[in-house]
Amino acid sequence: MATSRFRLVFHVPPSAAAACKSAIFAAGAGRQGNYSECCFTTALGTGQFRPTAGANPAIGKVGTLEEVEELCVETLCVGEETTKKVVAALKTAHPYEEPSYSVYKLEDF
User: Fold this and answer.
1) What pLDDT digit, counting tens, does each position of 12-64 carry?
2) Does 109 fall in a domain?
3) How many domains are contained in the chain?
4) Average pLDDT taken over every residue of the chain
5) Crossing angle (nearest 10°) for helices 14-26 and 80-93
6) What parts of the sequence cross the membrane (predicted)?
C-alpha cells in the first residue's frame, strides 16, 4: 500500500516566511524523490481577521479589524505522522496565535 501524501497550505507574513519554511522542512515537509525543501510560494495577498475577546494577537488589537499582507506557501508532506509533525512545527514557528493553514489528502492516479 502506498504511503499517504498530503498538501499543506498556509498563509504567513513575508517577514516570518523563512522561519516557517525552515521549521516545516526540518520536520519533514517538502521532500519529493531526490529533492528536499520543495514548496511553492505565491505573491502577496491580503489576510483579514478581527481578534475577539480572549485573543492575544501578534498583530493588531482585540476588536479591531486587521488586514495584513501575507504569502501563501504550499508543500508536500509524505505520511500522516510526518504531516502531524510538520503542522506542529508550523504552529510553533508561525508568529500568529492561530495560523491560517489547510491540509489536503492527495490521491495518487
Assistant:
1) 999 999 999 999 999 999 999 999 999 999 988 999 999 999 999 988 899 99
2) no
3) 1
4) 95
5) 150
6) none
Element spanning 52, H or E: none
Sheet holding 5-12, edge to edge: 40-49, 66-78, 5-12, 101-106
For residue 94, is it within any domain?
yes
- Using only C-alpha atoms, what is the Rg of the chain? 15
Longest dimension (CA), the chain: 50
Exposure pattern of 58-72 as b/e (b: 16+ CB <10 Å)?
eeeeeeeeeebebbb
**DSSP H helix total and E strand total for the chain:** 2, 4
